[in-house]
Design goal:
The structure holds two protein chains of two kinds. By secondary structure, chain A is of the alpha+beta class. Chain A has 21 helices and seven strands. In chain A, α5 crosses α6. Chain A starts with 6 loop residues before the first helix and ends in a 7-residue tail after the last helix. Chain B is mainly α. Chain B is 87% helix and 0% strand. The relative contact order of chain B is 0.18. At the A-B interface, α7 and α15 of A face α1 and α4 of B.
């Protein structure tokens, strides 16, 4: 191994790893951070839209709660109408439809009464953080491209990191907080990287797979002479199961529950008692003589792999007319995509994802700290490049955390009924997010080496403000959350406060280590004076 | 039952990573303040690997291979982090495990 990796090879890889890392740190941190939050996107939704804080209902009847309401929604003739029963993480009934003007709508129904819930207009977790994770809130395809390139860069960073790590086995469990900050930040960077190495490699890889058709749009059509319908007929049930509308009005669909039970029963027979159930039910050619129902399972609860498995039914006879479950030719692909989507029902694994995501954030942060400490040691701390990178890392790391807290604070402070012509309430929240982020970046540029410490303190303050605002605006303080079994609210508040405490602790650490005189720091950090 | 198997898999993971750390001279010294004999070294390393393998088996038994590949890898990650932090802040916590290995390798040498 030693011969294999010459000194020169290692040096050039170190250069590559360092500058690629510095160049991508801001984007990668944003993607890691929002991805980590998206692990709990539905829970964030419940926190930001308090109307969704409903205790988990028992089984509900779509026949009684949704079907009688169909005409109230005024869906377009021959359009698609989708609904889904409450699930573990979403306590309400979801309905998607297109109205007579061709506009798409999503409604959430109270699982107890079937009433449409008057939700706070927020993009919350499953629309804002989720989308930011892969498109960075940029227009069109730009964000996808930036994130895709960053994902490729991430894999290159992992591989180059393995090669330049001098003692990957000997120092696998090594963390020396008592040594110089340069040494301990490198230890921490290595530790957080190597322990979850497969995670740090597989997540960018599977992310690239998910959007392969965006990155290489022409490649997918090639086997079908560019005919996208040919591809869809083989990979998507909607094309395969499609029945053209007759153009004549037909009777409304009146029974869905029985169809869902039939499909669930078949999955149960095929997969045994741990099989999972339907997640979406679609009515196609609504109001037409040829209307039909698709009962589908795309994100099974009970396994990692995702993919469509669909039955189509004739709603009048209640008979299965067709089934689409593609051959398992890309089983590995389904598993890789499923491990990125994290839609399965596995709470311990969900929490482990969350912590692995945080370890990725810590890896990026400690990598940046190490870079700066190495410059301090070299005595180039006041050069322009160091100032720029320092401001950039503070803005990228503590900045996006502050922005996220700002997003929660904006959500609680902007009145639910606010009415500004031409502005959606959910966009106001996003503006607050970017306002907080911009302020953090300005502060980072102005305050130099003090910025880290001050922004960490700001995180603690904002965390407390966030939790108090939740209390004031919804009455769900931790004790109330416990007595009303609102565990999602309780745990989110506790995690926000815990994050604040960690930030405060980091700020205190930074104060201890920097007595305010810059001249002292290189002495403290020099190896011959360090206490070990 | 599901909780119990998860706890077992996590404990096996912790024992596994702690053992893999203890088979290194540096960490053994920080726990026991003594040198690690080469006979103990291989015993500890092999036990660590067996613990990790058992952890994987429990994960597969619990959730099937698709989940187990992720669950085990992430249990390993958290166990490694805990092991590293214990070794840097409270290495004496691992003394019970190191002593057990000492006793084991001592008795196996005596019997030879």
């Amino acid at each position: 191994m030693a011969k294999l990796i010459s000194k020169q090879f290692r040096e050039s890889l170190t250069w590559f790893h360092t500058w690629l890392g510095i160049g991508l740190a801001a984007v990668l941190f944003a993607v890691f951070w929002t991805g980590t939050l998206t692990v709990f996107d539905k829970e964030i939704d419940q926190w930001m839209k308090p109307e969704l804080r409903i205790a988990q209902p028992g089984p509900v009847s779509l026949d009684q709660l949704v079907l009688p309401k169909l005409s109230e929604f005024d869906p377009a003739r021959e359009s698609e109408f989708w609904m889904s029963a409450p699930r573990d993480r979403i306590p309400a009934i979801r309905v998607l439809y297109e109205d007579q003007d061709g506009e798409s709508h999503e409604a959430m129904l109270d699982p107890r009464s079937g009433e449409v819930l008057d939700l706070t207009d927020s993009h919350a977790g499953s629309d804002f953080f989720f989308r930011f994770h892969f498109m960075l809130h940029m227009p069109g395809i730009i964000g996808y491209i930036v994130v895709g390139l960053a994902a490729v860069g991430m894999m290159a960073l992992v591989v180059s990191g393995i090669f330049i790590h001098r003692k990957i086995i000997q120092e696998f469990f090594t963390f020396r907080p008592q040594k110089s900050r340069r040494r301990s930040s490198l230890d921490f960077h290595n530790l957080t990287a190597v322990i979850a190495l497969p995670f740090h490699f597989l997540l960018p890889l599977s992310g690239l797979f998910i959007f392969a058709s965006i990155y290489f749009p022409w490649s997918l059509g090639l086997p079908y002479d560019g005919n996208a319908r040919g591809l869809n007929a083989e990979t998507s049930g909607y094309e395969y199961l499609a029945v053209p509308a007759a153009g004549q009005p037909g009777p409304p669909v009146e029974r869905i529950d029985a169809l869902v039970s039939t499909a669930d029963g078949i999955w149960l027979a095929e997969e045994g008692k741990r099989s999972s159930r339907a997640d979406w039910i679609g009515i196609f050619n609504y109001g037409d003589k040829n209307s039909y129902v698709i009962v589908e399972r795309y994100y099974p609860d009970n396994r990692v792999s995702i993919g469509p498995d669909q039955f189509s039914f004739d709603p009048t006879t209640q008979e299965i007319t067709n089934r689409f479950s593609p051959e398992p030719v890309h089983a590995a692909m389904n598993w890789l995509e499923g491990l990125h989507w994290v839609q399965f029902d596995h709470w311990p694994l969900r929490w482990l994802y969350f912590f692995a995501g945080l370890s990725g954030c810590a890896m990026i942060g400690s990598g940046m700290v190490f870079w700066m400490q190495a410059r301090i040691k070299k005595g180039t701390e006041d050069s322009v490049s160091v100032r720029v990178v320092r401001a950039m890392s503070v803005g990228a790391i503590t900045g996006i955390i502050i922005a996220s807290l700002g997003f929660f604070i904006g959500n609680r402070l902007i009145p639910k009924e606010i009415d500004i012509t031409g502005v959606h309430r959910h966009d106001l929240e996003i503006w607050v997010f970017f306002l907080f982020w911009a302020l953090s970046c300005v502060h980072a540029a102005l305050r130099g080496r003090e910025a880290w410490k001050e922004q960490n303190m700001a995180i603690m303050v904002l965390a407390v403000v966030t939790v108090v605002l939740n209390w004031v605006t919804t009455g769900h303080h931790p004790v109330a959350a416990v007595s009303e079994s609102l565990w999602v609210v309780l745990i989110m508040d506790v995690m926000i406060l815990a994050g604040g405490i960690v930030a405060w602790w980091v700020a205190l650490k930074m104060r201890d280590a920097s007595p305010g005189t810059a001249a002292l720091r290189p002495v403290i950090d020099s190896p011959n004076r360090s206490p070990n | 039952m599901a909780h119990l198997t998860l706890i077992i898999a996590s404990l096996l993971g912790l024992f596994g990573t702690a053992s893999l750390a203890l088979c290194q001279q540096r960490h053994w010294k920080s726990v026991m303040h003594a040198d690690l004999s080469s006979a103990s070294k291989s015993l500890i390393r092999n036990s660590g690997l067996v613990f990790l393998l058992l952890s994987l088996v429990v994960c597969i038994q619990r959730d099937g291979a698709g989940f187990a590949a992720l669950l085990w890898a992430l249990i390993f990650a958290v166990a490694s982090l805990i092991t590293a932090l214990v070794l840097s802040y409270q290495p004496r916590t691992l003394r019970f495990l190191a002593s057990a290995y000492s006793a084991l390798s001592g008795s196996s040498q005596n019997s030879r």
